[in-house]
Specification:
By secondary structure, this protein is of the alpha+beta class. The chain has a domain at 7-304: Beta-galactosidase, Chain A, domain 5. The protein contains 16 helices and 40 strands. The strands form nine sheets. Strands 5, 6, 7, 8, 11, 12, 14, 15, 19 and 20 form a ten-stranded antiparallel β-sheet that branches.
Length: 709
């Protein structure tokens, strides 16, 4: 192994080897697939002899160094000199830090740094046997004699990318980011570093960076906290996710030949984040999740999606163990769930194979007056004349577990809560933080708020014995007063206290199935997934883009958490029905729509889909996913071409094929399966032989599902 820097220490965790490289009393964190150590070439030191720099070198004698220093810990203390760069990385605060020690405790590596002032950094890298990833986090301790104000601290800084080339790897590197917006969550963006101006200039080094993140309480509203890099020549991929429940930022930077992937809480430069530490106090970042694999970015991301399931403190509810199908009435009543309109729905979906029946938004609001709204959390007698308990009991009598919707982080202005306790709400500069919408943000840092929700949420769930709760969040906050720091840091404090309440719900009701929702998929970060049982992947309830969006979010969260809408309407033809039901095989199948009027054909189609889904349970639960897209248009809501998603395990394979406009009428799909064990189709010609699934008479805007054994 010939690294660009001296090797300080080396550890193998699973199929990954972690290298700590020594550079001027700093350490660089690098990760490679185990067994590829000898594939690392001797890296060039400078580019003195290039056309762009040789005359300068001759005249000045200065070297154009391209193997640059890169510290695995990055922080900024307000008052220290800023970095001569596009970010706060690498400034005076980093330069002052010196390596103190590194110790290994079982599968945890703890590295300590300190400066002469007494500001200490503790970097923790943790691996657990059987996992395909490891985590890092950084703690700052103020052991000095004066208060300090943090302006930046990163949870991870993965450097020396890529180590498998002796130069800057022109045309070999691909950067992956994942854009997000409402009803189009998790869209993959692939860049050559040069496209992002992450280039090596003529003199060898001028730090450049691309930063992105989320400044608000919707952690995946603009971007997913994910970054990846593939060395296409070496066939190696690195991926990083931030397990954030609060505002975060990611940075892809270049200084010389190597790229770095780093991130953590938002910083002073990105979002005016500042946090004061008195002598003896400390601050610890949330965790970052890292992996490295010999293979594609898709393979690397799948390893990261294991994190919420393996690093959660909450046991899986017994009802969840076999991936049950659910019904949610939101796209049935559109926010007006009354006794009158739900009773026929409950009766008509009886026996269709649904384990949960979820009463969605509007259950605590009068249909006519819209009073009292979000925040009161009491059933309204006028819309449940026979009593709310009667409706819940009807769900149980129909053989389903009752579920209920909450949006308990907010309250409406028309509620007694808001009128009686204006001091319970989040402030900014001493005044209530307000949006131009009628949602007001409860301050979970206040004991009174916690006690109120103990009664109105936890007490309510216990009273009616709900087995499922969908928690929604439909307005975002990005500024909150704090006694310890800036308004941006205040949002982080607020969200940590909100997350703690979610955890309290799970601990008091361990068999409650908890769905994370935020206007669909605006909180699909690994941190939020740790506290949930599943998540709404999108609010694209029935649009043609639904299978494309669901396939994208499946790259970011576990399969068993990726809840997908299947919204069936009256009068829709078999192709449309099959198109929607097939989308449910991309995660957790969630039915909705005109359920009081499901036709016998639709009910039969649902029964067949649910039966196939249950038969394919072992593959869906244990398999790994791959996606093939053959699209001739980048517009998701007018898609052209087709998408094939595979879920494969040692027990078989599930294929989900969605055909859009201009899709081919004939396809050959390679497979090593021996037989077709089940299918949803539309009368197409299907032949499995000679290692391929041959399909003919395919139809645009339709879908097929195959269970192969």
């Amino acid at each position: 192994m010939k690294t660009a820097y001296p090797l300080y220490s080396k550890y193998q965790f699973g199929d990954m080897t972690v290298l700590f490289l020594n550079c001027q009393e700093k350490l660089i964190l690098s990760v490679i697939p185990s067994g590829m150590e000898e594939d690392i070439p001797e890296h060039r030191h400078d580019i003195n002899d290039t056309v762009g720099y040789r005359s300068n070198h001759i005249a000045s004698g200065n070297d154009s160094i391209v193997a640059k220093e890169e510290s695995m810990v990055q922080l900024h203390i307000m008052g220290d000199a800023f970095a001569y760069a596009d970010t706060l990385r690498g400034g005076e605060s980093v330069q002052k830090q010196k390596l103190v020690s590194q110790t290994r405790e079982n599968n945890t590596v703890i590295t300590r740094f300190a400066d002469e002032r007494g500001i200490e950094l503790i970097h923790t890298l943790e691996y657990r046997p059987g996992e395909n990833f490891f985590t890092t986090r950084t703690e700052v301790r103020n052991s000095s004699k004066a208060a300090i104000e943090l302006g930046m601290i990163e949870a991870v800084s993965l450097g020396m990318l890529s180590p498998f080339r002796e130069d800057h790897a022109p045309d070999a590197l691909k950067i992956y980011r994942y854009r997000s917006c409402w009803s189009a969550e998790g869209r993959e963006m692939i860049h050559d570093p040069e496209e992002l101006a992450l280039t090596v200039p003529w003199n060898g080094g001028w730090p450049t960076a691309v930063r992105y993140g989320q400044r608000s309480s919707m952690t995946t509203r603009e971007w997913f906290p994910t970054a990846g890099l593939t060395d296409t020549a070496a066939g190696v991929s690195w991926a990083v996710q931030l397990a954030a429940v609060q505002p975060w930022q990611m940075c892809i930077s270049r200084n010389g030949d190597f790229l770095a992937l780093s991130g953590g809480p938002v910083d002073f430069d990105f979002a005016d984040w500042r946090y004061t530490l008195e002598p003896g106090e400390s601050y610890t970042t949330f965790s970052a999740v890292l992996t490295c694999v010999k293979g594609s970015m898709e393979k690397a991301l799948e390893r990261l999606t294991e994190y919420p399931l393996k690093r959660t403190e909450f046991p899986m509810p017994a009802a969840e163990k076999d991936l049950p199908v659910l019904f949610n009435e939101f796209c049935t009543t559109w926010g007006c769930p009354t006794e009158k309109n739900l009773l026929p729905v409950i009766e008509n979906v009886r026996g269709l194979g649904f384990r949960y029946f979820v009463i969605d938004g509007g259950w605590g609001r009068d249909v006519i007056t819209k009073q009292p709204g979000i925040g009161e959390w009491k059933p309204v007698d006028s819309i449940y004349p026979s009593g709310f308990g009667m409706l819940v009991e009807k769900i149980r009598e129909a053989g389903m577990i009752p579920g209920i919707w909450f949006e308990f982080e907010c309250a409406m202005a028309n509620t007694p809560l808001y009128k009686a306790h204006p001091d319970w709400f989040v402030t900014f500069r001493g005044e209530e933080y307000r949006l131009n919408t009628d949602r007001h943000f409860l301050d979970f840092r206040k004991k009174e708020v916690q006690e109120y929700l103990d009664e109105r949420v936890i007490g309510f769930l216990k009273k009616y014995n709900f087995g499922y709760m969908k928690v929604d969040y439909n307005a975002k906050i990005h500024l909150a007063d704090s006694e310890k720091g800036s308004a941006s840091a205040g949002v982080g404090e607020l969200l940590e206290s909100i997350y703690a309440f979610y955890g309290k719900v799970r601990r008091e009701l361990p068999e409650l199935v908890l769905e994370i929702c935020s206007s669909g998929g605006n909180r699909l970060s690994p941190g939020w997934m740790q506290v949930g049982s599943m998540a709404s992947c999108t609010d694209c309830h029935e649009g043609v883009a639904l299978p494309l969006v669901a396939a994208d979010t499946l790259k970011q969260i576990p399969f068993r958490m990726n809840q997908v809408w299947c919204t069936l309407r009256q009068g829709e033809d078999p192709l449309r029905t099959g198109y929607l039901l097939a989308g449910g095989f991309l995660g957790r199948m969630c039915l909705s729509g005109d359920a009081a009027y499901y036709s016998e054909f639709q009910k039969d189609a649902i029964r067949k889909a649910v039966a196939l889904y249950q038969e394919a349970y072992d593959v869906l639960e244990e398999g790994s996913s791959t996606q093939e897209r053959h699209l001739t248009s980048s517009a998701f809501y007018t898609p052209r071409g087709y998408q094939l998603c595979r879920r494969k395990s040692a027990k078989g394979e599930v294929l989900v094929l969605h055909l859009f406009e201009d899709a081919p009428a004939e396809l050959d799909i390679p497979t090593d399966a021996g037989r077709i064990a089940g299918t949803l189709n539309n009368g197409e010609k299907i032949v499995l032989q000679n290692g391929k699934l041959h399909l003919e008479e395919l139809k645009s805007m339709s879908a097929l599902v195959f269970l192969l054994r």
